[in-house]
Amino acid sequence: MLEMYAKDAVFDVSAVFTDVAPMHGSDNIRRYWETLRETWDGLRIDPLEGFDLGHGRWVIDQRMWAKGTRSGIEIDQRFAVLCIIRPEDKKVVHAQLLPDVTTAISVAERQQP
C-alpha cells in the first residue's frame, strides 16, 4: 500500500485519533502502520465507496475491523479518508482520516484545488 504514497507524503489521523501527530514521509507512515498491526489483531480496512471531488481530491468511505491484541476489545468503525493525489505520478501526497464522508467532503471543499 505504501507504493501508492509519495516519499514526502503526509498521513494525518489527528482528526480522529487526537493523540497521534501527522506523519511526514513514507518511512514514518510505514512505522505507524506497523504499530497498528502490532496493536490490532486481524486489522482489516475495506473501502466502501469513493468520491472523486476533482483536482486530484478523493474521499474514500471505509470500514475498519480489528481486535485489540492485549485488550481483546473489538472494533467495527467507519471512517473517511480525504486523499490528495499528485497528477504527474498519481501518488498520494496527503491523506487525512476524518470521522465520516460528510466531514471529509466539507474539509475538501474548504481547501484550494
Structural account:
This protein is α+β, with helices and mostly antiparallel strands. It has a single domain, classed as Nuclear Transport Factor 2, Chain: A, CATH 3.10.450.50. Helix content is 21%, strand content 51%. The chain has 2 helices and 6 strands. The longest helix is centred in the first third of the chain and has 14 residues. It is globular and about 40 Å long. The two termini are 25 Å apart.
Largest sheet: number of strands, sense, barrel closure: 6 strands, mixed
User: How many helix segments?
Assistant: 2
**Broad structural category:** alpha+beta
Radius of gyration: 14 Å
Measured as a percent range, the helix fraction is: 10-25%
Choose one word for the global shape.
globular
For this structure, what is the CATH class? Alpha Beta
Sequence of strands across the biggest β-sheet: 2-1-6-5-4-3
**How many DSSP-defined strands?**
6
Order of helices and strands: EEHEEEEH
CATH topology: Nuclear Transport Factor 2, Chain: A
Question: Architecture, according to CATH?
Answer: Roll
Q: Number of domains in the coordinates?
A: 1
